[in-house]
């Protein structure tokens, strides 16, 4: 039975860091301004308010990140309902201590 609140798989920032060397798809669902202030190098900016229109070919897992983990969870639920294999990144950029692109270092 389909559940509206079906669980979305989550991983920690540390787990995400170990996957960045792989060919993963990472969506940053923060606003473009937040994204420009600093984002993970592989991250593609698709703001939460545009996630409903997002389309991706293939069945590759989609990792979703935001600032704290709240918006990414919402985005992940929307993407899961569309049939994508989605993984939410808990803690978001607030907990990220790796390299970032953009912003002030």
UniProtKB/TrEMBL annotation:
InterPro entries membership: GlpE_sulfurtransferase (IPR050229), Rhodanese-like_dom (IPR001763), Rhodanese-like_dom_sf (IPR036873)
Keyword Transferase: yes
Record flagged with keyword NAD: no
GO molecular function: transferase activity
PROSITE patterns: RHODANESE_3
Alphabetically ordered keywords of this record: Transferase
Domain Rhodanese stretches: 20-105
Protein's recorded name: Sulfurtransferase
High-level lineage: Bacteria, Bacillati, Bacillota, Bacilli, Lactobacillales
């Amino acid at each position: 039975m389909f559940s509206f609140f079906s669980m979305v798989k989550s991983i920690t920032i540390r787990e995400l860091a170990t996957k960045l060397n792989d060919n993963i798809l990472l969506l940053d669902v923060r606003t473009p301004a937040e994204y420009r202030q600093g984002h993970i190098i592989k991250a593609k900016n698709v703001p939460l308010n545009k996630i409903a229109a997002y389309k991706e070919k293939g069945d590759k897992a989609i990792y979703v990140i935001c600032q704290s983990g709240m918006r990414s969870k919402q985005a992940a639920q929307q993407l899961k309902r569309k049939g994508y294999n989605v993984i939410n990144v808990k803690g978001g950029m607030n907990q990220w201590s790796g390299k970032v692109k953009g912003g002030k270092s």
